Every structure is written in structure tokens, then in C-alpha cells.
Prior knowledge:
elongated; 6-stranded parallel β-sheet; two-stranded parallel ribbon; alpha/beta
Amino acid sequence: MRRPWKPTLTLKLTLATHLAAGFSLFVWPTAWPWALAAIVINHAIVTAAGLLPRCDWLGPTLTRLPEAARQRGEIALTIDDGPDPDVTPQVLDMLDAAGVKASFFCIGRRARQHPALCREIVARGHRIENHGDAHSWRFSLFGYGRMKADVAAAQATLGELAGQPPRFFRPTAGLRNPFLDPVLAHLDLQLAAWTRRGYDTREADPAIVLARLTDHLAAGDILLLHDGNSARNAAGQPVILGVLPELLRIISAARLTPVTLTAALTLPPLSCKPFSTMPAAPSAT
């Protein structure tokens, strides 16, 4: 069953603002400057909320793992913009060597170009999540129809290749507009942001990226890295490959356990005591 869509307080106030502005113009035409100002201010607030990936004013946003996962000492590694035929296999080898699982937010069109690599991600125990089909930098300007078509196309592709539909969605650069939450509700997806990111698509120094990811690192954190569109260090190596080994060492030293987003939000099975039978009645003598 699809989750029901419930407009946030911000969206309710947006509707109320527009209705009030329209009503005021009907009964008091000379008040148009005030009505226009109210609408402009409202649009500025909505736009700002869409430009802040960790803001939940436009809909529920996962920025940290739930309390149960934090109590278990879990964090989540999320890796965006793949699959990349050169970088992703090396990332998978590093994760395997450390015994770590991650969530790969894959682009639909790239997945269709490299279907075997998507299957390899899943075969190694990782999860594939939805990062849109075109990964357009204009995604936050899409209307409802175009946005839904883009997310749904990636959902179909990734679900087929992974053998299970993605559960989470992350828009390009985390930017969105008020149409996204109803789209995700219709497709039964949850918006996932992050706790901290290294800006590894722009920063070429692995040490700086690592410091951003590990500063005050704690259980429940969601970390963001990129296997696709990764910046290159001075030697021409994708930054993620220079960051990941030390990042995994620091995580291990902190006694934290990297898990997929799905695993973090799934309750572990209850530990039950073995069933004990009633003692047998004494035999008659």
C-alpha cells in the first residue's frame, strides 16, 4: 500500500496565503501591494526550504538514523551518482575488504548503461536506491508530471536490475520543490538526505573531505560520498578512493557499524527464550 500524502504546515500556509491574497483582492482591490508582498514572501520561504536538503518543511526527510539504530551503534554510508564502470568496482572491493555494506543511490540512465554493475552491487550485499533517471540539475524546477515521470523511470529500471524496488530517493544535490513529497508518496519512496557530506564532487583534497565526514562522527550519522562525478586529486585519482580506506578505519576504531539505510530502519528479530514445556506428570506407581 502506498503511504498517504499529508501536506506539511508550510504547504498548508502556502495554500492559505494564496487564498487569502485572492480573497483580499476581490473585496479590497487597493490592497494588491500587500497581497503581492505576502505571496512573494511565501514563495521565498518555499524556495529556501527546497534549497536546504536537510530541511523538512516540504515533507519528511531522513537526515539521521532512528534511535534504535543509534543505540546499536550504526551509521550509514551512502554513495551517489553511480554506477561508474571505473570507480564503483574499486569501491566495492574496498567495502568488501572491510566487511561493510552501503547504500548506492544510482542514476537510472547510468544503470541502463551498466546493468551488470548494478547486479554486482546487489550481489555483494549492498542496496540500490533511487537517485532519479536523468540526474538533471533542473530537477527542482520540474512540475509534478515531469518529476513523477523521472523518479518512476528510475524506480522501474533500478527495481528490475536489483530484484527489489528502491525504498529511498535522493534528488540531484538534494534540491527539490513542493511537488516532490506527493510524488514520493505515490511511488512509496522515502526522501533521504544526510547528516554530513564531504563535498567530494568539488573538493580535490582527500584530507579535507575526510575531515568533513569524520568531524564529530557519531552513531546515527548518514554519510554522503560519490562514486560517480567524483573530484580528482592531484594524482588524478577519484577522491572517494583516497578517502574510503581511512574513513573505514576511523569508523571501525570508533566501534561504529556501517549498514544500509534499509537495514537501519528494519527492526531486528526479537530474541525469544526457547519454548519450555510443562513438566510431565509423575507416572502412577
